[in-house]
Specification:
Layout: H1 7-14, E1 18-19, E2 33-34, H2 37-61, H3 89-116
Parallel strand pairs: 1-2
Helix pairs in contact: 2-3
Length: about 140
């Protein structure tokens, strides 16, 4: 662990990586790219909506109506479940945010499994599961 205001050490540790900042990190830290969690969350939700609209179109055109999948619920990483109570206060915010990002990635993976398993949704993203659409600034 390093102090939140130790820009030199933080910069050295994050060099070459996309980062997500927690509150209280030195603003003068130079980074390659910062993940915009709001835009990433919005991009993932927009993709689910687009795929759901395609499913609706396909369903309307079929005489034997396919059952709509239960798309996973996406929760913004900042509103993630809480970290274990035995966590040191200095890392609590980072662990909660990390858990929230992991939950979002898991929900995206579940969504992609459902999408890729339906032949009529393959055009929206291809045969293979795609990674979470990170928006990086």
């Amino acid at each position: 662990m390093v102090a939140a205001d130790d820009a030199e050490v933080i910069g050295a540790l994050t060099a070459g990586y996309d980062v997500v900042w927690c509150d209280g990190v030195a603003e003068e830290v130079a980074t390659t790219a910062v993940v915009d969690l709001d835009a990433t969350f919005a991009a993932a939700r927009a993709e689910v909506e687009a795929v759901d609209a395609l499913f609706t179109e396909y369903q309307a055109a079929q005489s034997n109506k396919p059952i709509r999948p239960e798309w996973p619920e996406f929760v913004h990483p900042a509103q993630a479940r809480q970290a274990p109570c035995a966590v040191d206060e200095i890392v609590y915010d980072a662990l909660v945010l990390a858990r929230g990002i992991a939950d979002l990635a898991d929900a995206w993976s579940d969504f992609e499994s459902l999408r890729a398993a339906r032949h009529f949704l393959v055009e929206q993203g291809g045969l293979a599961a795609r990674p979470l659409p990170l928006v990086v600034r």
